[in-house]
Design goal:
The chain has helices at residues 13-36, 54-70, 100-104, 172-189, 199-207, 221-233, 261-268; strands spanning 43-47, 50-53, 75-78, 90-98, 111-118, 121-129, 134-139, 143-146, 149-150, 163-166, 192-194, 213-217, 237-239, 252-256. By secondary structure, it is of the alpha+beta class. It folds into two domains: 8-150, Fructose-1,6-Bisphosphatase, Chain A, domain 1; 159-268, 3-Layer(aba) Sandwich (D-Maltodextrin-Binding Protein, domain 2), CATH 3.40.190. The strands form three sheets. A seven-stranded mixed beta sheet has the order 3-4-5-6-7-8-9, with helices on both faces. Strand 1 and strand 2 form a beta hairpin. The model has no long low-confidence stretch (mean pLDDT 93).
Amino acid sequence: MSKAAFRIHRLPSHVQAPVTEAVTVALEAGRLLKRRFRTGVSVKMKGRADIVTAADVEAQRLVERRLRRSFPGHGILAEEGLDTTAGAEWHWIVDPLDGTKNFARGIPTFCVSIAAEYRGRVELGVVYDPIQEELFAGVRGQGAWLNGRPIRVSRVADLGLAFVATGCPHRVGRYVQSIALTFGRFAARSLGVRDRGAGALDLCYVACGRYDGYWEIDQSPWDIAAGGLIVEEAGGRMSDFRGGRFDIYGGETVASNRRVHERIIGVLKMPGGTPSRHRPPVRRS
């Protein structure tokens, strides 16, 4: 965890250019989304309980154009059309609009999420909420920040006093029984449970202490890559549903302030809490 303000020149030289571009692009895409918000953008169904808006596509084109211009040899993994450039050491992982359903309904909870992997390890993450004008950033080994100021997770140690968050995946029908069971169990054992419909922001809220924990099943890498790193760099813990190593391609996400992590895992391990046949939505190429 860093105690210093965010300064690009203080970062390791190999990440200075990618971090600079990630921040610039996230802010630009966020401004685009803010201009399009509540303007009647078109909405299409991608699948059951999954939609895409014209703003998603427009924001992704902006992000891809900027990243390809600055880093033509890098790969890009993005929600609205996948492109995994073979052999690239750097891969960008992009959700141009996390919280699409909120955006489409005029609910002001959404963000831009941009992360970058180097040789298979996430090295930086940026999440921008254009409505609240909050820019979260994390760089591996360097810290996490909100609008340039260092952030850290909460100190709540009792699950009964913890504020926790979750989300419903697009493929909710496959896992509805375990999701319902687990939601009820956390509701009965915590201070409260929230589903705001933007997982990247929920992770950032864990990182800055607004939430004490978060769990969700069946997420894709672009949902969690940036926010997961920001949690870790703010002193938090990331894992799968059994407390094992966190993998952005694993489809299981648990984030916490560390102090309540084992209690969260304990609830998830209760009978029926974890789907027995879960297959992650995206596999590592």
